[in-house]
């Protein structure tokens, strides 16, 4: 998939410009009648935006089986971490995302729906990969199921991400996310180099916010060129890997690639209804979301480390390629468990973010164990008392419980 909001290989027809205007106009009328914009509405009250999906998966998607994020969940599931998704918007009504999507913002749009209208379906899939919650009735969760999503809508269906005004919009969205307490920013898109965009990236890094971005996808009839913001220093640039562990052919190869995530045959929630969409061609957009989910787990487990240390932890614990690092997949496939729990450092340097103590397992027999311990203690005390009294009792029985006499010495 192309890392824009009009990806190559997208199946089905996207909404026409006329439909976009009608959907947004209807949302504006609703807002004027006291609905969407007057106060934060519950997730179920969000406008019906974007395509519907098909049936929910009946088996765990390969990407979840491969990354096994549940191995890291005993340490934490991303609670307290906010991930900004700068994309096409995020639907808050899907069962996988209910209660996870905060009010966000729209940039350069006709009306403001707080980032919660996704006409394309791209941003909602990305959000589901990052923070889809547990207990939705399907074998599907996000990598960090207790993280929150801050949706920032920067591109509509009919706008190319290489348009000259787009980098500035992305930069404004980055600054907005930082100023609204984002801990991680997911950028499943690529655009042109731009001073305002670079300034926004530096602003985020200076405020200790982790940025994860798509390295980019190869385009037909267009030579490979660096994808921004992924190519900026300090941004974690993500490539794609397939089910066999190989580099996805459409994923850009470049020296700025840091790490990789699942990038082919991807499944995720649809923005309208409760269905799921399949993206067989995948793309680095979705690979980026898997890495952002792992970054959220790291931020939750190690809240005091810097963005550079988060990036170091992600890359140095990845499943490396045979040569350790290359331009196709960077340091290799992200490994959520190792990223959270690994003790990094050398004999002379202290570990980078010591592993937190795991949450204790609940013991359903705890009260019975406590009672048993007290019974044993009381029994031991009683046994000691009885052992002390036994000689006294024996002598008493022999004398018939008569008082004993003390022998008085005779006078000489």
Automatic annotation (TrEMBL):
Q: Report the superkingdom from the record.
A: Bacteria
Which ranges does the record mark as transmembrane?
371-393
Q: What protein name is recorded for this chain?
A: Type VII secretion-associated serine protease mycosin
Where's it mainly located? Answer: membrane
GO biological process assignments: proteolysis
The residues responsible for catalysis, as annotated, are 87 (charge relay system), 122 (charge relay system), 285 (charge relay system)
Q: Tell me the leader sequence span.
A: 1-45
The way this protein sits in the membrane is described as:
Single-pass membrane protein
Q: Which family does it belong to?
A: Belongs to the peptidase S8 family.
Stretches assigned to the Peptidase S8/S53 domain: 78-332
**Keywords for this entry?**
Cell membrane, Hydrolase, Membrane, Protease, Serine protease, Signal, Transmembrane, Transmembrane helix
Which is an annotated GO molecular function term of this record?
serine-type endopeptidase activity
According to its record, what are the GO cellular component terms? Answer: plasma membrane
Q: Where is the protein found, in the record's own terms?
A: Cell membrane
Q: Which InterPro entries match?
A: Peptidase_S8/S53_dom, Peptidase_S8/S53_dom_sf, Peptidase_S8_Asp-AS, Peptidase_S8_His-AS, Peptidase_S8_subtilisin-like, Peptidase_S8_subtilisin-rel, T7SS_pept_S8A_mycosin
């Amino acid at each position: 998939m192309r890392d824009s909001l009009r990806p190559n290989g997208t199946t089905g027809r996207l909404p026409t410009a006329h439909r976009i205007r009608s959907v947004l106009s209807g949302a504006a009328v609703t807002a004027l009648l006291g609905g969407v914009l007057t106060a934060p509405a519950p997730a179920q009250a969000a406008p019906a935006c974007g395509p519907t999906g098909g049936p929910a998966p009946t088996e765990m998607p390969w990407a979840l089986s491969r990354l096994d994020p549940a191995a890291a969940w005993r340490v934490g599931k991303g609670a307290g971490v906010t991930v900004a998704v700068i994309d096409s918007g995020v639907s808050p009504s899907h069962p996988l995302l209910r209660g996870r999507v905060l009010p966000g913002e729209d940039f350069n749009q006709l009306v403001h729906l707080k980032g919660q209208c996704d006409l394309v379906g791209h941003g909602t899939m990305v959000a589901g990969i990052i923070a889809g919650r547990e207990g939705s009735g399907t074998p599907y969760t996000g990598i960090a199921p207790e993280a929150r999503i801050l949706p920032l809508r920067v591109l509509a269906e009919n706008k190319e991400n290489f348009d000259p005004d787009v980098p500035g919009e992305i930069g404004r969205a980055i600054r907005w996310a930082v100023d609204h307490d984002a801990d991680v920013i997911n950028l499943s898109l690529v655009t042109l180099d731009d001073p305002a965009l670079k300034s926004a990236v530096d602003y985020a890094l200076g405020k200790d916010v982790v940025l994860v971005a798509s390295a980019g996808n190869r385009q037909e009839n267009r030579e490979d060129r660096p994808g921004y913001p992924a190519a900026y220093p300090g941004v974690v640039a993500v490539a794609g890997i397939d089910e066999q562990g190989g580099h996805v052919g459409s994923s850009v190869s470049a020296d700025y690639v840091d790490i990789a995530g699942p990038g082919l045959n991807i499944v995720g929630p649809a923005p309208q209804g409760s269905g799921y969409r399949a993206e067989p061609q995948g793309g680095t957009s979705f690979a980026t979301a898997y890495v952002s989910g792992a970054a959220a787990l790291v931020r939750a487990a190690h809240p005091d480390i810097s963005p550079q240390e988060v990036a170091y932890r992600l890359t140095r614990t990845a499943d490396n390629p045979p040569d350790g690092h290359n331009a196709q997949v960077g340091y290799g496939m992200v490994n959520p468990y190792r990223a959270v729990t690994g003790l990094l450092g050398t004999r002379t340097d202290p570990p980078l973010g010591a592993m937190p103590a795991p949450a204790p397992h609940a013991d359903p027999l705890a009260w019975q164990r406590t009672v048993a311990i007290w019974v044993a203690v009381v029994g031991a005390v009683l046994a000691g008392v009885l052992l002390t009294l036994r000689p006294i009792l024996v002598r008493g029985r022999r004398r018939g419980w008569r008082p004993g006499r003390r022998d008085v010495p005779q006078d000489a």
